[in-house]
Amino acid sequence: MKSDNVIYDSETQIFNLSTRFFTLYGFLLFFFIILCIRLWHLQIIQGDVLKVISVKNRVKQKKILSPRGYILDREGRVLVDNSLVLQLTLNLQGLDPKEKEIISKKVGEILTLTPKQINDRITKSIVLNGRYFPAVIADNLTIDQAYALKLLRIEHPLINIEEFISRIYPYGASGSQLYGYVSQISKNQLDNTEVKEKNLLPGDMIGKKGVEKKWDEQIRGKDGLTYVQVDAHGRVADIDDVILEGSNLEPIRPKSGDHVMLTIDLDIQEAAHKAFQRDDKIGPRIGALVALNNKAEVLAWVSEPSFDSNQFVYGISNEDWKQLIQNPFKPLRNKVIQDNFSPGSTFKPFVGVAALEKGVIKPTTYLDSPGYFVLGRKRYHNHTKNGHGMVNIASALETSSNVFFYKLAMDLGIDEMAKYARAFGLGQATDIGIDVENPGLIPDSQWKLKNRNEAWQKGEDLVHSVGQGFIDVTPLQMALAYLAIGNEGPLYQPLVVKKILKGSDQSKVLKEFKPQLVRDLSKVNEEGFKISAETFAAIKKGLTQVGNGDRGTAKWWKIPGVPIAGKTGTSQVRAFSNDEIYKSCYSRPITDRHHGWFVGYAPADKPEIFVAVLTMHSCAGSSGSAPLARDVMEAYMRKYHPELFKTSGDNVVGL
Amino acid sequence: MDYLGPSENKRFDFNFALIILALNLVGLINLYSASGGVNAVGISRLFWQQFVWLGMGWTVFLVVTFLNYNLIKMWATQIYVVNLMFLLAVIFVGKKSLGAQRWVDLGFFRFQPSETMKVALVLVIAKILAHRIRQEGMGIKDLITPLVITMIPFAITVIQPDLGTSLLYLAVVGTILIFVKIKRSVIIAVLVTIAVALPVVWQFGLKPYQKSRVLTFISPGRDPRGAGYNSIQSKIAVGSGQIFGKGFKKGTQSQLEFLPERHTDFIFSVLSEEHGFVGSITTLALFGVLFILGLRIAQNTKDPYACIVVVGLMGIIFWHFFINIGMVMGILPIVGVPLPLISYGGSSLLTTMASLGLISSISYNRSLFQS
Questions:
Q1: A3 touches chain B (CB under 8 A)
Q2: Quick one: B229 exposed, middle or buried, by C-beta within 10 A (0-12, 13-18, 19+)?
Q3: Is A40 touching B (CB cutoff 8 A)?
Q4: I need a labelling partner for A477 at 20 to 30 A (CA). Which of A189, A563, B42, B179 fits?
Q5: What is the pLDDT of residues B100-110, one digit of tens each?
Q6: Could you report the predicted ipTM of this complex, rounded to two decimals?
Q7: Is the pTM value of this prediction over 0.90?
Q8: Which helix (H) or strand (E) holds A569?
């Protein structure tokens, strides 16, 4: 490899090379200066900024969940509970499609979920909370599942097992419209300004209906915040280091939610819920029931068909939601306050009160009640072809004579009837303060002129005197109005929330609610009238005969030793022709069948429990609704007056 | 000639050995911290493995020191050719590692021929150039053989693809050429060629991930979770160390695994984070002393071949050092280049120790040429 033109001379060559070292030292110095300047720039100039970033890198906020307060019954029994469950969450940040596929497969094997189901949960979470919030893949993990997933997490740190305080509704569908339900707040709701003020975060559970919604702020409590050190993969890392060193982050203690004690009596509630599940010829009932004590405290609340609140806690599935929405009988509606029905014959006592107070009749006035009443060219029918003969106010209520009340209406007119009905709170919101109420309507001639632009017709007086026509009420209004009759005067605002108890100490009462009297009808009211004791006595006599008289429309439903008083009623879903009118109800298609009412109280002489029942498409109040009311009253009497049942020993009642 | 054994004229450079030992210790202490962290159990396997590599490294160092380097000069061409064959073999049988084929598995040891090629290149080019040194600098004719010899391994590593290593070949050969002096006209010609070739190489020569690294280097915020992540996390680690550092084993960036490759390529960010500006400057100074001592050995030797070899080998270590630290501090793009004597890894350590052993041997035998 020697080149010919280069003569090798060691002395001169070494000399030449030694002069070249100057260049090398120059380069070395140059590059070292570059490195030193950069080091100084990063560590001294930018040091403070980068230090803060390094803290942010590893410190993550972690929510300390606050348990929601319980919903309790009047005796402190838990109606709505909490439970600590384990959830599987998946961090969507940094999740590539390949990793997602692997995780779906492996998690699916452990939890027996298909990749599609897992994918649905992820999609749903993205819709609800966006990409930066971990998706909940499964709730309620068993210990075995949680353990298997913990092992899986070693290789797939994006999955996480987290504790979660879950809402539990131990009584399922019983009372669900009243208690309501919770579910995760959605992104849309978070953007809502009203919600913004409450400092809610994605993933928070909020009350969406009933008591859970109305008292959400008290029940929810306040989540705390703590800070954890995480590694680059987002896993919580404990190393011997003061986590918050170099940061000014203060942890926030959680505040557990306050408990809401309802006036509900669990025993009565369960009896009421059970009463709808019948196996007679009408079958399980749909409709509404509300039971009050004599201070108008709600003891039981049923709206059927119902739904299981538990299915909302982890997000309701599309199929379940479709079923709820498409059900023609609307399970989500709270029929006790949100649906209006004509009261039918249960309206008659208020017409009776008006007639007695206006002097149209005396308690002893007897009127003939044949099969029909003629006004102009039109016949207005009794519900029996042959009528009831000569009846006074009490026996007219007992037999539910239409003609008797037609005759009263002829003298009273709608405006007088409406005045007294409204005095009993009918057609007006009860201000119970749970969800939206639909107040219904007690019409008068002014109303018709204004809203229908027509004059009131005399025939309409007749129709309205038996609780049909424009009259619309809710079951709760009826129960309250009958309470005013039974107790001879007091009309209450209903009470469902009794107390608010401190979350951390149940014995501490934060707020207590007392029954509020709207008015006492036995005293002269602002419109200058009152209802006399004689009138109440006459009406109550009639109501007692309904349950106990020979011709009583609810005489089949008795509690041994405890007389029931009340009134049956039929709320017509449509008008029938003269031919159709006496046709057997059960031969009609179900949606053509009338609704049945029963509103009453027990014991008849000294009322303690008031029950209003409306069963939809059950044909008649006597067979459709009265037995349900009887069951609830009996449950009440057995609980609070067990001594009355000691001798009889059996609860078998004749048909 | 006497190829083996000491004689009275020979002297072992203890200062040189001590500075190497000092850097080894810095490396070990730092590796102990870097191999710990949240997921570690006890003293890490990596630490003990590096301990073994160090033992082997020093054995190699001492053996090579007391060898007569003329033996290596004699075999330089053969070493180069065998190495070249291994390099070719890698393309066909090499193991995939970090997206590129770089290893030959010899059963007991995974051997990286592109690593040893740097040394072989220095040995063979020094042998050629030693006879062509001229006062006025070398011309094109003198450079043809060295350039061909460089371009063959360069091309192979580009194909692999291992862009970092191929650029290192150029840097090392370039360092030698500047040292032995070449004509100004040649330098200008080379610069013009590079200026023309660069856009062409960018368009057709680079793989997408390589382009992405360069782009990310220019603007790391472009993809903070992806390609720019390493660079950003490394800068955070270095910067957050501030003046005195976070303390031994207390670097959160490294212990919590925010730093990628923290025991190999990003070992210096662990050091900077935990020991701050003071520790980092001290380490740079140790390297500075190593380079100065190396260059002094080159200056003191009378043999032009030995002189070029020392400069070339120091060049290899220097460029590794500069590129690694430049990358860690975010002034150079991320290329997989370890920090000599500090990073974990047998291949790098053994090659470095062998090179240093050769320099030490040249120092030890410096009077040989005169006798």
A1: yes
A2: middle
A3: yes
A4: A563
A5: 456 666 655 66
A6: 0.90
A7: no
A8: strand A565-571
